[in-house]
Write a structure and sequence with these properties.
Layout lengths: L1 H48 L9 H17 L4 E8 L2 H8 L1 H18 L5 E6 L2 E7 L3 H17 L13 E7 L6 H11 L1
Antiparallel strand pairs: 1-3, 1-4, 2-3
Helix pairs in contact: 3-4, 4-5
């Protein structure tokens, strides 16, 4: 009986060792797949919330930020402003200098404007050459001061490095939140001010 048990154990031991190795290999593979899946999920989230060209928030994300901020506004008495910014004569830039230069202008505009923002401000590419800037805590005077900093950054930038005689300007409209006002109405007032 002992000899049979010993022989059985001797036969079973390599099988168990093989199963353990296979389980460890499968665990490693699952771990790697989990990391790949987490990376893909991060990429999908980035694509769902950010503009691919400029890296700014996209319209969907800005709408969510606006709704979140409006919920906070209902409990707060601090001001909040929104600006709609539009690059002037952008179609002419594309038509005259090409879409590659137009894309470079959009990227530079996003980078320069983004560098002027405060920690709680958010900038999104709304569509084409139009952007929306959310400024929680900013009254109209503070919002205009921020836009003046963006304007100064645009003026100081060397746009001619993209195309000779290229100068980029923008127009902006600002609206400061009124109690009970929804996101769409606030953006529409900023757009009308534009």
């Amino acid at each position: 009986v002992e000899a049979i048990s010993l022989a059985g154990a001797a036969l079973l031991l390599p099988v168990v060792a093989l199963v353990v190795r296979r389980v460890k290999a499968m665990q490693q593979q699952l771990g790697m797949q989990g990391l790949e899946l987490a990376d893909k999920l991060k990429q999908l989230n980035e694509l769902a919330t950010h503009d691919a060209l400029t890296g700014l928030f996209n319209r969907r994300k800005m709408n969510a930020l606006l709704e979140d901020e409006l919920r906070r506004q209902a409990r707060s008495s601090r001001p909040m402003s929104v600006a709609v910014l539009d690059i002037d004569l952008f179609k002419r830039i594309n038509d005259t200098h090409g879409h590659a230069v137009g894309d470079a202008v959009l990227r530079d505009f996003a980078r320069l404007a983004g560098a002027c923002l405060g920690q709680v401000d958010a900038l999104a590419r709304w569509g084409g050459e139009e952007f929306v800037l959310l400024m929680p805590g900013a009254d109209s005077a503070q919002a205009l001061a921020l836009l003046a900093r963006v304007r100064d950054a645009m003026i100081a930038h060397d746009w001619a490095r993209h195309a000779q005689s290229l100068a980029v300007r923008f127009s902006a409209g600002v609206a400061t939140w009124r109690a009970g006002e929804g996101a769409q109405a606030l953006i529409e007032r900023a757009d009308q001010a534009l």
